[in-house]
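Look over this entry.
=====
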Amino acid sequence: MDTIFALATAYGKAGVAVIRVSGPLAHHAGSILAGSLPQPRVSGLRVLKDGQGVRLDEALVLVFPDKQSFTGEAVVEFQLHGSTAVVSAVLRVLSEIQGLRQAEPGEFTRRALENGRLDLAQVEGLADLIDSETEAQRRQALRVLSGDLGDQAEKWRRDLIRATALLEATIDFADEEVPTDVSPEVLTLTQSVLASLKKEISGVKSAERIRTGFEVAIVGAPNVGKSTLLNALAGRDAAITSEYAGTTRDVIEVRMDLAGLPVTLLDTAGLRETEDKVEEIGIARARERADLADLRVFLVEGDERPDFEPHRGDIVLKAKADLLEDKCGAISGTSGEGVPDLIEKVTQRLSDQAASAGIATRERHRIAMIHAVEAMESAERFVLVGEEVTDLAAEELRSAIRSLDSLVGRIDVENVLDEIFSSFCLGK
C-alpha cells in the first residue's frame, strides 16, 4: 500500500496539531523529519527539519510498529504546535518524500478495516462517535465502537454454525445408521438465536433515533401559541410570532439536548381550512411531519379537541395559560407557565422510547437481521418436515450466517463502504 499522511486534527490555529503518517514508509518519513525516532509507543521530543536542515518546529513524536497501530500498519504521529504555518510546512515536506501521498477522507479508518483492526460495525460506531452531540449518542456510539454488535453477531454465528454442522453430519452419514436425532438440538439453537435477533430488531428504531435525533412536533390551530412555545423551549427567537394567523408557513426546526437525548422540535403551520395555496402546502407538510414525529404536543384552546387523533403517549395541553384562571394542564410560552413540566414530560416520554434501544443502530443492520430471521424460520420448517429436506435446512442456515456476516463486513460490504467513508473527515 501507499504510505499516506494527513492532518488528524482540525485545521486552524490551536494549541496542538497532530499529523499522522501510516504505511510501509512511515518510519522512514519520520526519520527524515525528526532524525532518530523514539522507542515504539513512547513519545519523544524532537526537532523537525526539512530536507535542507531548516528547523520547522519542536514536536513530540510517537511511533507505532506494524500490526500495533490504529491502522494495523507502521505509523508515526507528530504532535506539533498548532500554527497553520507550522502544519503547512510539515505537510509540504512530507509531500516531497517519494512514496508518500495525501490521505483521502476516512482512509486511515478504511485501512483499519482492511487490516482487521476494526469490523464494519465498529467503523460505523466511530463515525457516529465523531458526529455525536449528546451524552446518549456518545454512549451508544462507544458501545458499537467497542465491538458489542460484532461480539453479539459472533455468538449468533457460532450457534448457527453448530446447528448447520449437526444437519450436515446427518447428510454425510445418510447411508449409515445415525443413532441420534439432531433436530431437537438444532431447533433449540435456532430458537435461541431467533429470540435474540427479534429482540434486537425491535430496538433498532429507538437506537437509530438516538443516533439521528428524536422529533417532537408542536401541533395546533393558527395563533394558538406554537411558535411562542417553540421560542420559549429554545431560549431564543427561532420562529417569527405575530397576532396574524398563518404566520408559520413551513416547518421550523430547533435542535435541543434533553437529558442527553438529541431532540429536534418542530414548529408546524397552524391547522385550518384555507384558500391560500402557500399556506395550504405548509399545513399539508405540518400534518405529514407531525404524523411521522416520535412525539406530538397538541395545543388547544378552550374546549376544543386536537385537529387529529393523538397517538399513544402524545401530550395535549391547554394553550395560553397566562390568560386562564384554571391553569391545570395549561401552558404559556409567553409567561413560561407549564414549560418546565412540559420539558419533564417530553424527556420522560423519549427516555422511555430510548430504553428499548439495542446495539444495532442502522437500517442496514435491521435488514441484515431480518434476512437472517427469515432464513432461520425457513430452516426450521424444513427441519420439521424431516430428513429428506435436511440439505435445504442446512442451506437456509448458511444463508442466515451470510446475513450475519454482512453485519460486521465479512461479505457484501463494497456497496456501503463509499457511503460510510464519505462522512469521515480528512485525517481519520
Q: What stands out?
A: The chain has three domains: 3-103, 126-203+361-421, 223-354.
